[in-house]
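Hello again, I could really use a second opinion on something today. I've been staring at a protein lately and its backbone has me curious. Can you walk me through what the tokens say about the fold? Take your time with it, there's no hurry, and the full record follows here:
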Amino acid sequence: MEAEGAKEIFQRSLGDRGVRYVKYLGDGDSKAYKTVCEKRNEGKKLSDGKSLGGPGRLTEAEIDKLQTYYGLAIRRNTNSLNEMTSAVWASFLHKASTDDRPQHQLCPKGPDSWCGFQKAAASGEAYHHKHSLPNAVLETIKPVYKDLSDVNLLRKCLHGQTQNQNESFNNLIWERAPKTVFVGHQTIWIAVHDAVITFNNGAARRLLVLNEMGLKPGFNTERALCRIDNERVYHAQRAAQSSTKEARTTRRNAEKQKESAREEADDYDPGMH
């Protein structure tokens, strides 16, 4: 619903309002931006006369890979802004590399490198580039990389502070007042205030609210609220571990690759090039 709403707003802006949107502000998990971009690029041809997406171009699987590389560039270089910036551009140049023009100078070297080219170079084996992106696609996405590698943005990611706090707060509200259920203003008001309390200070801070209302919480109530906070901290710390994040990302990428392979198989036609 959010994605379709954003698409409709962007579609009617020029005709109905005489306004052209040039910037979009949203959370990283939203599909709205992707939907708007797809609609804007629908039928648009790049410098090579082909579209942005499709087999061998910017597929869902390739987008997921680029997002994964970007996340790793941040999480593995939280103590150095320069190294973080280099790692972001390493992923771009990695996808631009071909057998005739390898560009892996920023990729980590050695047998344990995530870069297949550098890994092969360390072992003395030959390497063949199979998953490079066309120059026309790279030209189109390069401005995005310039924005994502901006030092003012990456500086905020130092020390691993990459969680989207706004999205976490929104989730607390939706837990109390689900989007799928219609509620009145009073219910939303209570849900937001309770979400603010627990987001800032934890569930145990509800005890102060009860005291202000003249209600004396019992031992079991106090213990239950403290247990909620302890469990939340435990799960947050576990989810923040790089190994856990990378395992989730690996599973998601595998599913994307399978989906992309199925799409290419469906598009097959004898004689098609």
User: Anything to note?
Assistant: The radius of gyration is 24 Å. The longest helix spans residues 242-266. Confidence is low (pLDDT under 50) at residues 263-273.
